Fold:
Amino acid sequence: MAVTDILFAVMIMPQISYMIYNWDTNFVDYDPYVIAAIGWPLPLFLKASVGLNAGAATERILALYFPIIYRKVDHVQCSNILMIICMFIGAIDVVMSTYAFRFEPRINCSSLGCFVNDIFRTYWGTSNMACGLVVIVMSLFVFFKVQKLSRESGWMGATLAERKKNMAASQKFTQANRTTCGILLSSLFCMTIPSLLVSLVETITGFSIFEKFGAFYVASLLTSGEF
Structure:
């Protein structure tokens, strides 16, 4: 996940630089051809980020609820496969956003979402909302189990060597849980929940957050990656 966060931060810099350079407090008119050329990292990494968060939650669910299966899994291979799948799904969104792009001026709008048609924007919002709900539910299972385990104290062993070995394993397991929970929490509060609310608002009311607040998803992804 750190790799994708760094890649996104680097690849989105041309768009951020272009928007800042051409920013005006009274009137904004970005060139749609430039936005089309430099805006592709957003749909790619947004969907990839959601998929990787779901993968992190799945990994912890296996460790917490199905430890026998967890120990049999090749985690490196699974991580590589998950990365490929997430980037492939993100690439599909890039192709669809390119096909749905409207090469016409959008006054006072600073987001890629303003330049795509309503069909893609509806698909994008609905798919992100569905993925967000899945990640939230999976995260709740992780948080509940971690909280339950933290309240329980198990038998550490009969001998000193057994106790030291079991305590070391317990500390490693606890640290892994804390790390994953931290990643999921930052993703939930910085990206998943805000994205879910944005999708709900636009689906129910038709009010476009993109036109009102600008590059919302870019800010969410960067903030989530920072934490």
Summary: The chain has ten helices and no strands.
